[in-house]
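Bumping my old thread because nobody answered last time. Still need a sequence for this structure:
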């Protein structure tokens, strides 16, 4: 095995030790823009709390340690400027940032190359608070900040991206304004058509508005995700133009059929795929000479199945719910909608894990293999986001349509049950109960293999924060457009903006419930199902390059202990013990080690020969 070179350390994490000045800020922003992990230790110039060490274990062996700051340590003012947030039980958004207090001591250790590679933060008693490895930069000047190479060469080590609330809000505002305009135009056109003598003709404006709506909303992301999946390269402006034109022509061509807008979205999407993807693939042949068609085609088919197919599946669930209500089976409808959508949403996350492992991960063990491009960047994220967005949209539209048709308050138990199921699922207790039940039926190992959380399930939980709000824009826009077009009328009038008062309360309840749900989950105001040794065991033989791997592994093949997670290094409280085995006693020669796999999980980043795992203070044996 080759030594862990400078670039591999840099790919794992860039660690900046400095006073948080202009140079630190420039370097940190460049790193974050490159998609790499970042940790910053806020110190003073010539800080006596910072010392350097050249210990024998670090100089003789390529070691790697990873015990990032715990949530209770907070976040520094420098990291907050870069949108850093304290880590939650499972995830971390933005850079780590620690401001050294008076009783802290930061030790910077040199690696085998003679460069600073490891940092250890201790308190006045010598207890290790933070221990990290990476590319360490101390007191950077402006020249280093502007010229240091900060790119992540191994794309599998890029941190999972998330969404910025700033751009989510902008997208929501755009959607709201456009949908109000679309619904207002539609109402105006329908009223005019009803007043003309030729009311039996084909209403051409319906499909035109549907085509515009698709081109300004869904077509953009569908073109991006399928282009990257099929060609390994992001869509160009020309690709978007060709796709939008194809979708518009197809939607207008089926005007005589008078299809619903739900179906027209599928028509536009399939037309874009059939026309724009071959064009994009042909135009990028010279960019990716090692690319092979079949692996990309199979992954694209899986991508379409998991998005367009998911769209159709939840549409079917909404139709079944409406049918149950129409037949007077309100009790069955109450349980069918929340459990049906929750089951299908979970199933789509499992589907994403399976198809990614089958069509992407297995073909990307070799970086120059037949499937190229960063498929986690947009395609995989779209699969995960589609599952939640369509599930929530289905719950809202199905509930609202039933209330509009029949009025009444039968929607309350359905909505309350959905909210309770969401809390249980996002806090991990639904999965915990499934594990406990399965342990009684088929044993612990089998139960954990089936129901243990994965990187995909936690990524799904993270995207729920952003994907759930877009469904409200269409409903709010419809109510506003009806208010503008018909004016303020009595609640008994069919032209009432929200059709009836009960429908208005559905919107208010679900919107407020979404906000409360996100606040409770993100701030962890309710207990989170903890991880225990059972979860460590199920990850013990995994592959860190697989996004499904929730926790990164350590590889110590010459260590005799049967505990790959080195639990003996943890005290009963879960804190790292200061009486741990010496690195020199436990680490084999670098030459004896296999090439370590890489990690892209949402927990700790990577796994090289040495890894320190801390479970926190709450543990249960799953």
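Sorry it took so long. Here it is:
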């Amino acid at each position: 095995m080759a030594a862990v070179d400078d670039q591999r350390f840099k790919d794992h994490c860039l660690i900046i030790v400095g006073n948080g000045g202009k140079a630190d800020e420039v370097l940190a922003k460049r790193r974050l823009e490159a998609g790499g992990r970042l940790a910053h230790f806020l110190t003073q110039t010539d800080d006596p709390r910072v010392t350097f060490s050249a210990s024998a274990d670090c100089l003789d062996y390529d070691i790697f340690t990873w015990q990032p700051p715990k949530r209770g340590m907070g976040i520094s003012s420098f990291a907050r400027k870069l949108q850093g947030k304290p880590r939650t039980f499972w995830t971390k958004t933005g850079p780590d940032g620690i401001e050294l207090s008076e009783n802290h001591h930061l030790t910077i250790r040199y690696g085998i190359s003679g460069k600073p590679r490891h940092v250890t933060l201790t308190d006045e008693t010598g207890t290790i608070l933070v221990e990290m490895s990476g590319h360490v930069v101390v007191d950077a000047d402006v020249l280093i900040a502007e010229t240091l190479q900060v790119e992540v060469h191994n794309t599998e080590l890029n941190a999972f991206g998330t969404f910025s609330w700033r751009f989510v809000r902008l997208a929501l505002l755009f959607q709201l304004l456009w949908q109000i305009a679309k619904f207002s135009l539609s109402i105006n056109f329908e009223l005019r058509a009803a007043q003309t003598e030729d009311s039996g003709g084909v209403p051409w404006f319906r499909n035109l508005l549907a085509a515009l709506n698709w081109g300004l909303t869904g077509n953009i992301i569908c073109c991006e995700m399928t282009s990257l999946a099929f060609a390994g390269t992001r869509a160009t402006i020309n690709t978007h133009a060709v796709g939008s034109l194809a979708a518009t022509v197809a939607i207008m061509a089926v005007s005589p059929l008078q299809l619903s807008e739900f179906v027209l979205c599928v028509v536009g999407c399939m037309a874009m795929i059939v026309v724009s993807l071959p064009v994009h693939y042909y135009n990028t042949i010279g960019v990716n000479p090692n690319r092979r068609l079949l692996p990309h085609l199979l992954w694209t088919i899986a991508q379409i199945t998991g998005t367009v197919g998911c769209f159709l599946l939840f549409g079917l669930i909404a139709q079944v719910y409406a049918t149950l209500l129409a037949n007077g089976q309100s009790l069955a409808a109450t349980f069918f909608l929340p459990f049906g959508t929750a089951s299908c949403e979970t199933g789509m996350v499992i589907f994403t894990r399976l198809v990614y492992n089958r069509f992407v991960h297995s073909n990307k063990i070799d970086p120059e293999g037949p499937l190229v491009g960063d498929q986690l960047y947009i395609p995989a994220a779209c699969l995960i986001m589609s599952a939640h967005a369509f599930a929530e949209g289905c719950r809202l539209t199905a509930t609202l349509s039933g209330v509009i048709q029949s009025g009444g308050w039968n929607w309350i138990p359905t909505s309350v049950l959905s909210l309770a199921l969401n809390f249980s699922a996002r806090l991990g207790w639904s999965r915990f109960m499934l594990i406990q039940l399965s342990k009684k039926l088929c044993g612990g190992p089998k139960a954990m293999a089936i129901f243990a959380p994965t990187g995909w399930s936690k990524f799904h939980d993270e995207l729920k924060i952003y994907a759930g709000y877009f469904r409200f824009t269409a409903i709010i826009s419809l109510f506003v457009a009806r208010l503008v077009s018909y004016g303020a009328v009595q609640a008994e009038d069919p032209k009432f903006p929200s059709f009836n008062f009960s429908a208005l309360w559905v919107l208010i309840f679900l919107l407020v419930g979404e906000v409360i749900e996100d606040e409770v989950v993100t701030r962890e105001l309710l207990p989170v199902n903890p991880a225990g040794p059972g979860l460590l065991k199920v990850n013990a033989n995994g592959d860190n390059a697989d996004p499904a791997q929730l926790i990164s592994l350590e590889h110590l093949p010459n260590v005799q202990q049967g505990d790959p997670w080195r639990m003996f290094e943890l005290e009963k409280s879960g804190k790292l013990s200061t009486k741990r085995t010496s690195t020199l006693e436990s680490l084999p020669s670098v030459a004896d080690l296999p090439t370590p796999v890489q990690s892209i999980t949402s927990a700790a980043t990577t796994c090289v020969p040495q890894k320190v795992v801390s479970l926190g203070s709450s543990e249960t044996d799953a």
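Residues 570-622 have pLDDT under 50 and may be disordered. Let me know if any region looks off to you.
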